[in-house]
Amino acid sequence: MENTFEKDTKIPNCNDEQGWKTYCIGRTPLASSQKLPFLHSIIPLDELTLHKLIVYHVKWMHNDEFTKERAMWIYALLSRLQKPPPPHVASSLRDLLVYCCKVRAKMDNREHPLLSSVNIIIALTEVYFGQGDQF
What we know:
Blueprint: E1 4-6, E2 9-10, H1 17-25, H2 39-42, H3 47-63, H4 68-80, H5 87-106, H6 115-128
Antiparallel strand pairs: 1-2
Helix pairs in contact: 3-4, 3-5, 4-6, 5-6
């Protein structure tokens, strides 16, 4: 029996980066086919898939703009990540922290609609997962 998140929605293979990108954010970052990270889609992930998805999402963020949907996926995946993260995931978390700090530095005011999303990810990666010790 194949794993499914939703009825008739097959999840990609763990190593299918393009399949996961299409599943999570659609064909383009603003596509209507993107899926939000609901609990029923995050809970069944095994540890290997969870780690791969975190690494994938961090990589994708460097190539596309930061969106609320991206922040939701990152937050949902981080909520399942156990401490301490494995070294390759910790490295991606450090990259994520640097990326989010740069995004926040470019925000022109305190009322920016993505500021709270960026701040939450920064707090999680820096404080909870301990990746801010290199700043």
